[in-house]
Specification:
Elements: E1 8-12, E2 22-31, H1 38-45, E3 52-54, H2 55-67, E4 71-81, E5 86-95, E6 99-104, H3 112-122, E7 129-131, H4 136-150, E8 157-163, E9 169-176, E10 182-189, H5 196-202, H6 213-229, E11 237-246, E12 249-257, E13 263-270, H7 277-281, H8 294-307, E14 317-325, E15 328-336, E16 342-349, H9 353-362, H10 375-386, E17 392-401, E18 406-415
Parallel strand pairs: 1-4, 2-5, 6-9, 10-12, 13-15, 16-18
Antiparallel strand pairs: 2-3, 4-5, 6-7, 8-9, 11-12, 14-15, 17-18
Helix pairs in contact: 3-4, 5-6
Length: about 425
């Protein structure tokens, strides 16, 4: 966890000359927070009104607030109040800014709302998120362990930091390590036109795996949705899913919105100057009037991007922009041809130095010339043709240097 510091400011009236002396707590006030309610803040201090407290109790309350990680600063003042040996505790806090949502991976014995309530009862400042510093992450874990243990359920709880696809920390994920839940089956609601068998096949790799909410969600979005899109259901989306279990075997029920099945009406190109549109059309394998296989379309466009390597445009990109009309879709393929890359170095591996030098001498694409990704293919083909009695396998590694706009090649001979 990221560590942040909080400060405590203690202002005590002379009445508190002895830390062990007991006083009657009349009032607790916590101000300065826009994130939490006064009731939650008061509960988080651990102090109870009309109870007997010592100066140490009051100082510990301030440390408890600061140590939670929910605040970057805690100031407090203790002062005499009405009544016999009455005392008022006033706290001023500064909200922390860095919080992460908490996710519960496999607590299938409880609903989400039940889990929220269970944790909030024990951790008043828990609002579905935990600060990136302090004790709250551990406090949430302790609350979960207690809830599980009290019901005689598996209670080995751990938590980890989850990262997004971009590698950024995105959540604190809690799971029961010894839950024993295994994924057994899949069901789909609102999926009227795609066979359940086709959908289930996309998720078959999850069967018999430990149940994890985030893993299932990732599979639904990353595996199930592309299957729908490959059958023309381009607006397919998973609206949510539920997990139920019997004897530790889990059934996933996914709510799927298929949307219309779109057929290809037309397509055209923009931004292409190096390759004519009629040449690019030859790389599109989709047929007009047929349902769009979006996965195949992506493969086709990847081949278009690769074709620009002949002209040294290693960073060429093609973006498909759809226009929907009923159950028809027309695409505008926006081409960004990118910058020109130049030939860097070429190394020949898997042979003695004399053979490598001979091949280097016959290599004609000089360093600094515009790169052509078809040249090394033609070069290797000529070597194979000139050695008909020798079984040869070549491997090519293109090292694209985006900063210097060069491509360095390693060509390795693998004799058979």
């Amino acid at each position: 966890m990221i560590k942040t510091l909080f400060f405590l400011l203690l202002l005590v009236q002379p009445v508190f000359s002895l830390s062990a002396e007991r006083f009657h707590l009349v009032k607790v006030v916590v101000t300065g927070s826009t994130r939490y309610s006064q009731d939650d803040l008061q509960r988080a201090t651990g102090l109870k009104l009309n109870s007997e407290v010592t100066q140490d109790d009051l100082q510990n309350a301030a440390r408890r607030l600061g140590g939670s990680g929910a605040f970057t600063g805690v100031q407090f003042t203790f002062m005499p109040a009405k009544g016999v040996r009455g005392v008022e505790a006033d706290f001023v806090v500064t909200d922390a800014m860095q919080f992460l949502p908490a996710s519960f991976e496999n607590f299938l014995w409880f609903s989400d709302s039940d889990l929220q309530q269970i944790v909030r009862q024990a951790v008043p400042l828990f609002d579905g998120s935990v600060p990136q510093s302090g004790t709250m992450s551990e406090d949430v874990k302790a609350a979960l362990v207690q809830a599980l243990s009290s019901k005689g359920l598996p209670s080995q709880v751990s938590y980890t930091l989850s990262a997004s696809e971009m590698g950024q920390i995105s959540a604190v994920s809690y799971k029961v390590d010894n839950a024993g839940f295994k994924i057994a089956d899949f069901q789909f609601v609102n999926a009227g036109r795609l066979p359940s068998e086709t959908l289930a096949k996309a998720l078959a790799f999850l069967k018999d795996q430990d149940y994890s909410r985030s893993v299932v969600k990732q599979a639904l979005d990353g595996n199930l949705v592309p299957v729908c899109q490959s059958h023309g259901f381009l607006k397919c989306a998973v609206l949510g899913f539920k997990a139920s279990f019997q004897q530790q075997m889990v059934t996933i029920t996914a709510d799927l919105s298929e949307g219309p099945q779109f057929k290809l009406a037309s397509y055209q190109w923009s931004g292409n100057t190096l390759i004519a549109g009629n040449e690019l059309n030859k790389r599109i394998t989709l047929k007009l009037g047929e349902p769009v296989d979006f996965s195949r379309l992506q493969d086709d466009l990847a081949q278009v991007q690769k074709a620009y390597g002949k002209f040294g445009r290693e960073a060429a990109k093609v973006k498909p922009v759809p226009t929907y009309n009923g159950d028809q879709v027309a695409y505008l393929f926006q081409v960004n041809e990118g910058d020109l890359f130049h030939m860097g170095t070429v190394d020949f591996l898997g042979m003695d130095s004399a053979s490598a030098q001979k091949l280097a001498a016959s290599w004609k694409l000089a360093e600094g010339q515009p790169y052509d990704n078809t040249y090394y293919q033609r070069f290797i083909a000529s070597l194979v043709m000139s050695n008909p009695g020798r079984q040869m396998e070549w491997a090519a590694l293109e090292d694209v240097d985006a900063q210097h706009k060069t491509v360095n090649l390693k060509l390795q001979l693998k004799s058979r």
